[in-house]
Design a protein that fits this description.
By secondary structure, this protein is α+β, with helices and mostly antiparallel strands. It has 3 domains: 241 residues, no CATH class; 128 residues, Arc Repressor Mutant, subunit A (Orthogonal Bundle), CATH 1.10.10.1330; 74 residues, Homeodomain-like (Arc Repressor Mutant, subunit A, Orthogonal Bundle), CATH 1.10.10. Helix content is 48%, strand content 6%. It contains 21 helices and 9 strands. The strands form 3 sheets. Strands 2-4-3-6-7 form a 5-stranded mixed sheet, with helices on one face. Strands 1-5 form a two-stranded antiparallel ribbon.
């Protein structure tokens, strides 16, 4: 058969990633701070864009009210009145098609605190504006896996990590965290003690004395006189060495040696790392409880850049450039980019609202009762519910924060793993399974110590489809010894 060139016609589908589409995807995953910088650059490079004025803002708010009345709702709510310990989700939850106007969020993207460049040749890189040095937050987060916490305790630890300042001190009240997360104070204190074992030594201390105490204990130098010195740092500040030496039970020369050892310690252990942790986080979404017993989901209008297309200026420039091909092409490109930016900002805000509303619907138990009532949730669950691609949900939940009555959380915080059910029904939260294992082991006596295989059998009887190696993994994550070690502990009365 002779070989010869020929032409063939074929049909096919292909997604064309235009520069504008690439920019829209970038907008979706930018944090509010990065978005502000992006839009500011756009305002500087595109003469047809301008910041909105108060008058446009008021007109936008009037349009919101009209739209809200047409939808017979000023806010989008998710009821938690019917939620139970099984975390049942009520039927009258947030509609995935809700708009910002429907939920009371400001839908006027014309006001600006922000910036960016939106022409197709731009390649905005947020990473270029960030420090390369590792931050204290990143350093501590990387060590959390070493603590082998349960999944729910890790959620609590993640929240507590956010309360550490750039010096490494834990600046929150244990009782307040207990109330916000719906867990016991003793549980928070237990996790805090574990967090205080992280490096650098002294982090998660609540005051200077505790910070120094942690470092001295690590060095094996925390004896009774040194403890007395730490308990009386105020006396040291007054330079009353004679009285302080008497309190510590040492001579003045011995006290001076002790003070010299203190000076070799780090009073601010976190300062050795990047200081970006102290940067304030502005929430993208607000969640508040309504008088009707539901949850209102609102966009944070203060973080939404508001830009306008100056149509009058465009008409003037377009008319004046009829005889100038290059000028006409430039102004047409600016007009197209400005239109696309306004639409992309609007779509970004609505997408964030959709995803946040679905998260509130799915995790109603958490908002009503606390961290122990979080449901297993995957990105795909939210994506399917709001009819979006999973990658879109992933971008939306990155670097986006939600302010709730229980505190400030990143949207990714609400996604947890699931354990399948024996009957094929709704899966069990991984943390609830850990809790079942913990309860079974806590009920043991010297004669009823349960092996991992026995625990598997008991869990399967409760409808949990779990393997022995999973039980072992969860048991170890809770720092629970093996059955052999537990028998020895019972034998020796430990």
């Amino acid at each position: 058969m002779a070989l010869a060139p020929k032409l063939q016609a074929r049909q096919g589908q292909q997604l064309a990633m235009t520069p504008q589409l690439q920019q829209a995807i970038k907008l979706l995953q930018l944090s509010n701070i990065e978005l502000s910088a992006f839009v500011e650059e756009q305002l500087e490079s595109n003469p047809l864009l301008e910041r909105g004025t108060g008058e446009e803002n008021r007109r936008g708010e009037d349009l919101q009210k009209d739209a809200a009345q047409q939808h017979n709702a000023a806010t989008d709510t998710v009821s938690h009145g019917e939620a139970s310990s099984q975390m049942d989700v009520p039927d009258h939850a947030v509609s995935p098609d809700a708009t910002a106007a429907d939920v009371g969020g400001t839908v006027d993207w014309s006001r600006n605190n922000s910036g960016g460049s939106f022409n197709g040749s731009s390649d905005y890189d947020p990473a270029a504006n960030t420090a390369a040095d590792i931050t204290l937050s990143e350093h501590l987060t990387g060590q959390l896996a070493m603590l082998r916490l349960s999944q729910k305790d890790k959620l609590i630890a993640d929240y507590m990590l956010g309360q550490v300042d750039e010096a490494g001190y834990f600046r929150s009240d244990v009782a307040e965290i207990s109330d916000n997360l719906g867990v016991s104070i003793s549980r928070v204190n237990t996790i805090l003690l574990q967090l205080q074992t992280l490096e650098p030594t002294g982090v998660f201390a609540r005051d200077l004395a505790e910070c120094l105490r942690l470092q001295l204990r690590e060095n094996g130098e925390l004896d009774a006189p040194m403890q007395a010195l730490l308990d009386n740092l105020a006396m040291l500040a007054k330079h009353d060495l004679a009285k302080l030496a008497k309190v510590c039970g040492v001579k003045v020369d011995g006290l001076k040696d002790m003070v010299a050892r203190l000076r070799n310690l780090s009073p601010k252990p976190g300062m050795a790392y990047g200081g970006t942790m102290a940067q304030a986080v502005e929430p993208d979404v607000f969640i508040r409880e309504t008088p009707q017993g539901g949850w209102a989901v609102e966009l944070n209008s203060d973080t939404l850049p508001r830009v306008l297309l100056n149509q009058r200026y465009y008409n003037e420039i377009a008319s004046a450039s009829d005889n100038n091909t290059q000028a006409r092409e430039f102004i047409s490109e600016c007009h197209a980019n400005a239109n696309w930016l306004v639409k992309s900002l609007d779509q970004r805000a609505r997408t964030i609202l959709k995803v946040a509303s679905e998260i509130v619907k799915q995790q109603d138990g958490f908002f009503a009762y606390g961290v122990d009532h979080m449901r297993p949730l995957k990105l795909k669950d939210v994506a399917d519910a709001i009819e979006m691609h999973e990658s879109t949900v992933s971008r939306v939940t990155s670097n986006k924060f939600m302010h709730t009555p229980r505190g400030l959380y990143e949207l990714k915080y609400f996604f947890t793993a699931a354990i399948p059910s024996m009957d094929g029904g709704e899966g069990h939260s991984a943390e609830s399974v850990r809790n079942k294992i913990k309860i079974l082991i806590s009920e043991e006596t010297e004669k009823t110590v349960k092996s991992d295989d026995k625990i598997v059998t008991l869990l399967q009887a409760q409808g949990v489809d779990i393997a022995r190696h999973t039980v072992a993994k969860y048991r170890e994550s809770m720092n629970i010894p093996s059955s052999v070690e537990r028998r020895r502990m019972f034998k020796h009365g430990m």
